Amino acid sequence: MYRYDSYDQSIVDARVEEFRDQVQRRLTGALTEDQFKPLRLMNGLYLQLHAYMLRVAIPYGTLSGRQMRKLGEIAAKYDRGYGHFTTRQNLQYNWIKLADAPDILAELATVEMHAIQTSGNCIRNISSDQYAGVSADEVADPRPWAELLRQWSSFHPEFTYLPRKFKICVIASDDDRAAMKLHDIGLKLVSRDGVIGAEVYAGGGMGRTPMVAPLIRDFVPEEEIISYLEACLRVYNRYGRRDNKYKARIKILVHEIGVEAYKRQVEEEFAHMRTLGLNPPTEELDRIRAFFAPPAYETGLSEEIDRADPAFALWVDRQVAAHKAPGYAIVNISLKPLTGIPGDASAEQIELVAGLAEQYSLDELRVTHAQNLVLPHVKKADLHAIWQKLEAAGLAEANLDLITDIIACPGLDYCALANARSIPLAQKIAQRFAAAERQAELGELKLKISGCINACGHHHAGHIGILGVDRKGVENFQLSLGGSGAEDTSLGQITGPGFSEDGVVDAIEKVTDLYLAQRESGERFLDTYRRLGMKPFKEAIYG
Amino acid sequence: MKILTGNDLVSGDVIWWAGDGWSRQVGDSVDVGTHGDDLARTEEAALRVVGAYVIDATITDDGVRPAHIKDRIRALGPTVRPDLTLKPNDADAGNWVI
Fold this sequence. Notes:
In chain A, the strands form four sheets. Chain A has a five-stranded antiparallel sheet. In chain A, strands 3-14-15-12-11 form a five-stranded antiparallel sheet. Chain A has four domains: 104 residues, Sulfite Reductase Hemoprotein, domain 2, CATH 3.90.480.20; 157 residues, 2-Layer Sandwich (Sulfite Reductase Hemoprotein, domain 1); 83 residues, Alpha-Beta Plaits (2-Layer Sandwich), CATH 3.30.70.3340; 136 residues, Sulfite Reductase Hemoprotein, domain 1 (2-Layer Sandwich), CATH 3.30.413. Helix content of chain A is 37%, strand content 17%. Chain A is an alpha+beta fold and 543 residues long. Chain A contains 17 helices and 20 strands. Chain B has one domain. Chain B is 18% helix and 28% strand. Chain B has a five-stranded antiparallel sheet with strand order 3-2-1-4-5. In chain B, a hairpin with a 6-residue loop joins strand 1 and strand 2. The longest helix of chain B is centred in the middle third of the chain and has 10 residues. Chain B: This is DUF2849 domain-containing protein. Chain B: It holds the Pfam family DUF2849. Chain A: Its EC number is 1.8.7.1.
C-alpha cells in the first residue's frame, strides 16, 4: 500500500489546521454560512437532513487495518456508532458536530487519510477495481496509476473549480468491477506489444442524463497518461457549461459537440502538452509502484477447503473469489444483511474487519462500489476461521451479486437531495426474496436503488433499477430494466408508470417470475432481458 | 400554519422555532405567520441556526405535522433506525412519517 511521504503528510496536516481556523471563525460569526459553505464542502463536510455529514476519502478503495480501525474509532467517538460505505468507495458519517470536524480530520491525518476533494467541482476520489493486484486477469495493478492520479489531482490549481464534479476510474482487467464507463473519465490499462498504456473513455456518468463513456483513445503510453488527462480536463474546463449545473458535466460537452470534435480538441491540446514536458518522472511512478509490489505470499499452501459445514460451503461458493497466488483467496464481506442497511457497518464491525485484515489479509482490505468490503489476501486454510468471526458479527451473508446484494443510496432517510426513501425499499425487497434457494435460483441479479435523479444508487446500471421520485409529496418508484455497470455496460430502460413502495416489490416479483419461466440455459436475468426485450416484461408487470 | 425549521449551527441537530427559542421537538413549533423569513435571518445572524427555512404544517391529533414527508423525516429521524429517532422506544414511530 502507498504510504505518505513528508510532503503528503505536511499537506494534509496543514489542511486540518486551516479548516480548524475556518470552523472557529464560523462558530464566532466571522464567517457567514455563505462564506463557510464552500470551505466546509472542500473538506467533505455537508449539512444533511439530520446533521452535518462528513465524507471521508478512501483512495481507490484500499485501506490498511490501522486505517479501518481509525474509521471505527471515529464512528464510536464522534458519530452514533456506525458509518456508511458509499458507491464511491468512500465512508460517510451521518451525525457529525461542526465543532468536532477539525478533530476528526486530525485523527484521520494520523493514519494518512482525509476528506479533501470529496465534494465540490473538482476531481474526486479516484475509484478502482476492488480486486486490483490480486486478480489473475489484470495486465497490471491499476493502483499505482490511481495513486499517481490522486497526487496529480490533489489541489491541482487549474482543476479546483471545474464546471462540475469530475470522477475518474482506473481498471486493468477485461472484467469491469468498477463501472468504469460510467465515470467522467475511465481508464482501462492494457498491454500493447508488452508496453503498458491505457484505453481512455470520456463522458460517461449517471445522474439525470446517464451516458456510457465512448472510447476516445485506444492507447496512451503509461508515461503520457497524466499529460493526456491534463488535455482532456483542459478542454472540458474551457468549454464545459457553467451556466446550467444540470448540463455542466463532461458527458454533456462530449454529447453536444460530438465525440469526434471532443477527441480532436483533446488531441490538439495533447500535442501542445507534449511540448511542455509535464509527464511525471519515471522515477516517481516507480517509487509509487514499489508500494504496490506484490506481497511476499507464502508458497506451498494447501488449496483444500474443508466444506463439511454446509453454511460455510455456501458462503465460500458465493463470497470467495479466485486469487492469483496459489493457496490464497479473495474474501468478499457482505454489508447487505437481509434486515440491515446497505453499506452500513457498526463501529464494532469496522473494528472486527480491521482485525481480520491485520490477522488474515496481509493488513489490507478494500471497499467496493457495491458497498461491500473485501479481504484481498486470505489463505484458503484461514477461510473457516474468518467465516466464523464474520458470522458472529452479522457479516456472513452469502449474497454477493444476488438480488439481495442491493446497492442503495442513503435516500430520504438521510439525504437532503433525496425524493424518496431507498433503504426501507431495499429491506422490503430483501425480505421478499430472503430465501437462499430463491436467490440462488435467480442467480446474478444486480438491483440498484436511488432516492433521486442524482443516481448515487446507480439505478441506471442495475439489471433491475429503481428510482425514487416525489409525486405531490408521496414517494413513488420508477422501475427500469437492463442496465449494467460491468464490461457490458448499458443503461436501464424505464418500464412504464411508477409504483408505490409495495407495488414496486410486487412488480419485481413479476419480472423475476417471467425471467425464471423464459430463461434459456446459462442465461442471467440480464441476458434474458436482452434477448426478449422490454415488451414481455412490461406485459407481465402492467398486464 | 407556517413553521420555521433549520439545523443547530454547532451540533447540526434539527431544530424548530418554538416562539421564544429553538426546540428539538417539532411539536413545540409555533405558527410564524408571515414573519418566518425575518426570524430566520435574525436567528442565523445570532449563530443559533443554519439553513433556516419556512414550511407548511398542520395541527393534527398527534400535534404539529409538517406537510412534506422530507420535513416529517427531519422531525422524527431516520425511519430505518428507530433507535436514533426522537422516539427510540417506539418501533412503529416511522409510520407517522408516511
